[in-house]
Structure formats: C-alpha cells, structure tokens
Amino acid sequence: MKKLLFQFDTDPRPAAFDTVVAYDGGADHVIGHGGLTPENVGPLVEGAIFTRPPKDKKNTAIFIGGRDLGAGEALLEAVKGKFFADFRVSVMLDSNGCNTTAAAGVACIVSRVPVKGKKAVVLAGTGPVGQRVAALLAREGAQVTLASRSLERARAACDAMKRRFAVTITPVEAVDDEARARVIEDAQIVFATGAAGVSLLGEHHWRGNSHLEVIADANATPPLGVEGVAMTDRGIVRHGKICWGAIGFGALKLALHRACIARLFERNDLILDAEEIYAIAREMVAV
Fold first, then answer.
1. Given a cut of 80, is residue 250 above it in pLDDT?
2. Residue 15 near residue 71, CB atoms below 8 Å
3. Residue 183 to residue 180: CA distance in whole angstroms
4. The pLDDT of residue 286
5. pLDDT the model gives residue 42
6. Residues whose CB falls within 8 Å of the CB of residue 166, separated by 6 or more in sequence, listed in order
7. 73, 110 in Cβ contact below 8 A?
8. Bridge partners of 87?
9. What stretch of H or E contains 171?
10. Stretch(es) of the chain classified as CATH 3.40.50.720
11. Total Cβ atoms within 10 A of residue 81
12. Alpha-carbon span 193 to 124, nearest angstrom
C-alpha cells in the first residue's frame, strides 16, 4: 500500500523544501494543498481518515507547514479536532522549519554543554524558529531572554510560549548591534535566529566575552547573523566559544526532518510537535 503524505500549507503554495524532504523521508506520494485554514481544512482531513481500514491508516499522514507558526498551530488544532476513536492519522507540525531547526540546534548545544541554570539569549527570537529555540532551552532549565527590535513583539512571543509550553521567558528590546551586545554580556548561550541575510552581531561584540560558552547562528545566507561564526561550524571552538553554524547543525535538522516523516508511517496516532521532535533529535545526537 502506498504511503501518502498530505502537505497542508498555510501559505498559498506548499513549500518545495518540505515536499523534497517528504519524499526523502519515505513518502510514496506527496499531495500538496496551499492556503489552508481551520475553516476549510475539514473535508481534506475527513478524506484522509475515512478512506482506509484501521490496519492501513498508518500509510496516510499529514504534514503542516507554512511560514506563520500561529496559523500552523491553529491548523493543527483544527486537524486534531476532526479525529475520533481510531479515525485518525499521524500529523507533523513544522511551520517554517521551526520544530526541526530548533530541535536540531538545541540538541547540538545540549550534547556539548549543560544548560540548566545558565542564561541563554535568543536574538531576533520572535519568528517561528526563535520561539521554538527559546521554549526548548527554557524546558531544559535555562534562564532564557528573547531579544527583538520591538519590545511589543518580544512580549507577545513570550506570552505565547508561556501559554503553549508553561515556561517563563524574559522579553527585551535590542534595536541594534550595540544593544544586542549589551544583552549578551552575562550570557553563557547565544542563539541567533534572525531573518536571512541580516547581521545581528559583529565578531568584536562576542569574541572577548568571558561568560559566553556557546554561540549558534541559524542564518545560512550572507551576511550571516553572527560575524565570525562560519555557516559550516559544527561545534568548532572560536575565541574559546563552541560555535554552531546553520549548515553545521543543519545536517542534523535534515536528518531529523526525514526521520520524523518516516515515523509518521509507523502508526496512525502520532502528533509530532516541538516536544516530540526534540525528543527524537536528542535520540539522534546520542547515537
């Protein structure tokens, strides 16, 4: 029986990246639908859950993507709301790659240094990846600060993560490189999650920081988010700090994404969101 993955995207067109990884993860066919909302997704879910007998339902799965994390979370709830008894299929949420990217990056950090009780700063953290990085670090016991050019957006993101993950994250406003340098002065962990091609820190802002133990940058498009950290850095020590670049932990991100797709077809009742995907990432780095 063919393994069918329905790609539910909140953007007008399903992301090509997610389609490619879906096939690499083991799907036989990927059926993409764009522009989905909680209001219009119902018939698609019903078509997915009613068409195959119980023993074969594991061969149908749903992937939820799109750039907007809030829209993705709402779509996930709408999808789950259609499930009942054994009329369900496995679902994965990864809006803008937020869960797989954050899980891979945090798993790499935790594999090298303990984070409990340490100050972690997530720069430009109001986007999907930044929010998930902040939440996962907080769940690991770090004291997390989320920095943004807008204090209002930082507060809104922290409030959303408190509701979703029951974690407390401190919002701060940091409008330029100098302000961000001040925010990280007493931090042990810094994770930059800014937009592609946007520089957040100069090398001189962090190389002499005696508190800093780990620095990670999720940006792979020049100019990079953190000057002095190469996109291929994979736990490389620079200026006494362990450095991770976007491609450095990106290999784990892609492997993780593929592994999650494969797991969707093992049973018909999985919900893979941040916590579940992070647990798989921790398994993978422990091997």
1. yes
2. no
3. 5
4. 85
5. 98
6. none
7. no
8. 84
9. strand 170-173
10. 100-249
11. 12
12. 6
Cβ(260)–Cβ(86) below 8 Å = no
CA–CA dist 203, 190 (Å, integer): 13
CATH class of 100-249: alpha beta
Whether the Cβ atoms of residue 191 and residue 121 lie closer than 8 Å to each other: yes
214 pLDDT above the threshold of 90: yes
Respond yes or no on whether the N-terminal peptide bond of residue 171 is cis (omega within 30° of 0). no
Q: Under CATH, which architecture does the 4-97+252-286 domain have? A: 3-Layer(aba) Sandwich (3.40)
What's the pLDDT band for 206 if we cut at 50, 70, 90?
very high
Residue 105 structure tokens: 């990056």
pLDDT digits (tens, 9 = 90+) for 20-75: 999 999 999 999 999 999 999 999 999 999 999 999 999 999 999 999 999 999 99
Token pair 């993560």 is at which residue? 161
Query: DSSP assignment of 32-44, as one string?
Result: EE-S--TTT-HHH
Order of strands, edge to edge, in the sheet holding 214-217?
170-173, 143-148, 119-123, 189-192, 214-217, 241-244, 234-238
Predicted confidence at residue 70, as pLDDT, reads 95
What pLDDT is recorded for position 72?
A: 98
Closest to 246 measured CA to CA, from 136, 105, 125: 105
Q: Residue 184: CA atoms inside 13 Å, Cβ hemisphere, count?
A: 33
Find where tokens 């780095």 sit: 285
pLDDT (0 to 100) of residue 230: 97
Inform me whether the pLDDT recorded for 287 exceeds 80: no
